[in-house]
Each structure stands twice: as structure tokens, then as C-alpha cells.
Design a protein that fits this description.
Helix 1 packs parallel to helix 5 and helix 2 packs parallel to helix 3. The chain has five helices and nine strands. By secondary structure, the chain is an alpha/beta fold.
């Protein structure tokens, strides 16, 4: 998550670690799975978060959402949700074992598949709360469309204000039952 020369991974990691600590101490019965995505998506543990680095990867948002939805489908709880921290620029898909990449971003093929996954999550009753840490109006337009399709929420944050939004939203949604 380096966009326009700005390091976005460090604040995202800090917020994820703080959220994990909040859940562990205040809501010990809740679970938190962390999914990271570049060309592919994979789960990591909280203890591995500080060592996560940006690699020479593209952003396969579709794969990240697909893995997160699969993990949540297996849970027996009613209150399922995805918190996604992103710069809002999906650039990659994996089809038939090959990568389709477009570093310029907002490629129709990549966007459509990502939007379809947002709709699928909505059908599964998994809202997605997106925390966007980029100010690019073109990318914000995509996040608005993504949010509308999923019926979730989106917060547009600076690198410094990210934590406040995530904590507020987590605690607020923790108190209500999503049906």
C-alpha cells in the first residue's frame, strides 16, 4: 500500500494491531481474522502484523474479499462483517491460474469482478466497512459505488485519522445485531 509515494501500510498495520488488542481485551468472545492481499490473498496472525511489508505486488481486492467471505461463512455467529483498509485501487485478478494486472487502476474487468464480490457479500449478509486512506476523487468514486452495491459503509480518512474511524465503527456495530 504505497500510493503516490505515501506509506499507507504502516498506519494500517498499527490500526489493525490496536483493533486486535481492543477485541482481545474488551470483547474476548469476538474473533478477528486478518486477511492481506497483493497479487493473491492470505490470512496472517496478529503476531505477524508488525512484520508485514509492502511487496512488488498489485492489489487483488477480489481475492481478499473472497477469502474473508469464505472465513466468515464458516463462522456460526450472526454478526459478521468485513473491515477493509484500502487505498481504493484494485489492480489485479487471478483467472485460470494466470494474473490479469493493470497498474493504472480501475480497469473495467477488475472493477466489475470486485463489485460482483461486494454484491455477493451483501447476499451473504456480510456488510463491508471500507476505510479508504487516499484522497483521489477517482478512487473515492469507486469506493462509493462499491459501498452502495454492498450496502456497507465507507469512511475516507487521512493517514493520521484512520484509527479513530475504525474504533468508533467497531464499537458501534458491536452493540447492535446485524441480521
Amino acid at each position: 500500500m504505497i500510493l503516490y509515494g505515501e506509506d499507507r501500510i504502516t498506519p494500517a498495520k498499527k490500526v489493525a494491531m490496536a483493533l486486535a488488542e481492543l477485541i482481545k481485551t474488551k470483547y474476548p468472545k469476538d474473533t478477528l481474522d486478518i486477511v492481506v492481499f497483493g497479487n493473491d490473498a492470505w490470512p496472517i496472525s496478529v503476531k505477524d502484523l508488525p512484520y508485514l511489508q509492502v511487496g512488488p505486488y498489485h492489489t487483488n481486492t477480489y481475492a481478499g474479499l473472497e477469502l474473508a467471505a469464505d472465513l466468515l461463512r464458516r463462522r456460526k455467529t450472526h454478526n459478521k462483517q468485513i473491515f477493509m483498509i484500502t487505498d481504493g485501487k484494485p489492480t489485479c485478478l487471478k483467472e485460470n491460474g494466470k494474473y490479469y494486472k493493470n497498474s493504472m487502476g480501475l480497469d473495467r474487468k477488475v472493477i466489475n469482478k470486485t463489485l460482483n464480490m461486494a454484491a455477493q457479500c451483501k447476499r451473504l449478509k456480510i456488510p463491508i466497512t471500507t476505510f479508504m486512506i487516499a484522497k483521489d476523487p477517482y478512487l473515492q468514486q469507486f469506493v462509493r459505488q462499491f459501498t452502495e452495491i454492498n450496502g456497507g459503509r465507507a469512511f475516507y480518512s487521512s493517514l493520521n485519522g484512520l484509527g479513530e474511524y475504525i474504533f468508533e465503527d467497531y464499537i458501534k456495530n458491536r452493540r447492535k445485531t446485524v441480521k
